Amino acid sequence: MAIAAMGLGLATVIPTVAGAAFPGTNGVIAFVTTRNNAVAISQVDPRKADGTSSGDLAATTPLTNGSTDAEPFYSPDGTTLAFSSNRSLHWAIYTIAQSDQGERTPAVAISQAPGGATHDDYGPSFTDDGQSIVFNRDNAGIYSVYVPAGPSSVCDLYNPAGGIANAASDNGASSRVVFDPVDPTKLVYVSGTSNHIHLLSGVTVPTAAHPCPSQSGLTDTDLSATAAGTPLTATQADANPDWSPDGTKIIFDSTRSCGKSLWYFTNPTSGSPTVTALWPGLASGSTTDTQPVYSPDGQMISYTQPVLGSGNQIVGYDYQLVGVSAPQASQLTLGAGASSNSQSDWQPLQPGPNLPEAPSVLMLPGVALLAGGGFVLLRTRRRTNAA
């Protein structure tokens, strides 16, 4: 799936992939937006958004201003954001300080030297030490870069037999490669031939001394094909996987039902994974939910859903509601006009004193999810027993 950004003379296609959350306290949410005649990355503070267009805009700050910036992913300490961009007429991986606004300090290209590109790089994600990033190169292979060393440390980590899934010919949609936030020897990716989610185990993580370690003894497991539960047919697809912060679950979107809905694997690394619909009552295709990501505390998720007349927006909800007929949620990124917002990622703040939790934002009845249109849903009341 890719989102076409139209309006004010802008016509481009942006990747539609989800990010991931490392363990911690919930911070702001990065997302891709088509506001202001550009496709760029902004951040919204869910503690300040109130579920109205003007309120959500007031809680939002711009981060980048490239021609097309996409696929944001926070570092484990929440201080750096990696993203992909075609600002140099090819797709490359960049990093920027999370505290920047409007790119006052230009983002740094780390996967290719500007002007010397021969590849397209998409879908960055950090290792748990924040020192390395893995990414999809040319929808064919999984590559890594040791961030302090930059482009000189790029190396080939793994080349899946079927390549890596991409939903459009000109971007890395659905291509994210995501490390287990607890065990960096494991990562997940989506196959380019089967559109199945795969677990790759036995990965040797890059280090300063060995930025391109030898990868041997890798085990590639097709989770989509082996998980017990609702089977995936040849005409259906799984996409946009994201790990829970404790590494025990993988959430994703799928066409296992009649439309796009959210599912999750339990016990993904145990050899006996099970797949379950997040909201069983809505697994018949009555919604179009994509790009789910966990909050750092594991209690909530954000995801993308179309809203009639308002483009695509980001949604979040209390993860305690797994298994109910419909979640209750609040809008976060409505914005002005018909802006299209997608590809959220939640900033992890380190355990310790942080901003206090805000009162619950606007709560919408579950039926609001069935009305169509784009918005972000979030419930701020925390639970202690995430499903």
Keyphrases for this structure?
28 strands; Neuraminidase; single chain; mainly beta; 387 residues; disordered C terminus; five-stranded antiparallel β-sheet; 2 helices; globular; 3% helix; 37% strand; five-stranded mixed β-sheet
By secondary-structure content and strand pairing, the structural class works out as: mainly beta
Number of helices: 2
> Mean pLDDT, rounded to whole units?
77
| N- to C-terminal distance | 28 Å
The tally of domains stands at: 1
Please mark out the parts with pLDDT under 50 across 5 or more consecutive residues, or reply none. 1-19, 317-325, 352-387
What is the number of E strands? 28
Which class in CATH terms?
Mainly Beta
> In CATH terms, what is the architecture?
6 Propeller
In CATH terms, the superfamily is: TolB, C-terminal domain
Query: Could you say what the CATH topology is called?
Result: Neuraminidase
Helical residue percent band = under 10%
Radius of gyration: 19 Å
Report the oligomer. single chain
Give the strand order, joined by hyphens, for the main sheet: 18-22-21-20-19
Largest sheet: 5 strands, mixed
Name the helix and strand elements from N-terminus to C-terminus, one letter apiece. Answer: EEEEHEEEEEEEEEEEEEHEEEEEEEEEEE
In percent, how much strand structure appears in the residues?
35-45%
Structure characterization notes:
By secondary structure, this protein is mainly β. The protein has one domain (3-374): 6 Propeller (Neuraminidase), CATH 2.120.10.30. It contains 2 helices and 28 strands. The strands form 7 sheets. Strands 18-22-21-20-19 form a 5-stranded mixed β-sheet. The protein is globular, with a radius of gyration of 19 Å.
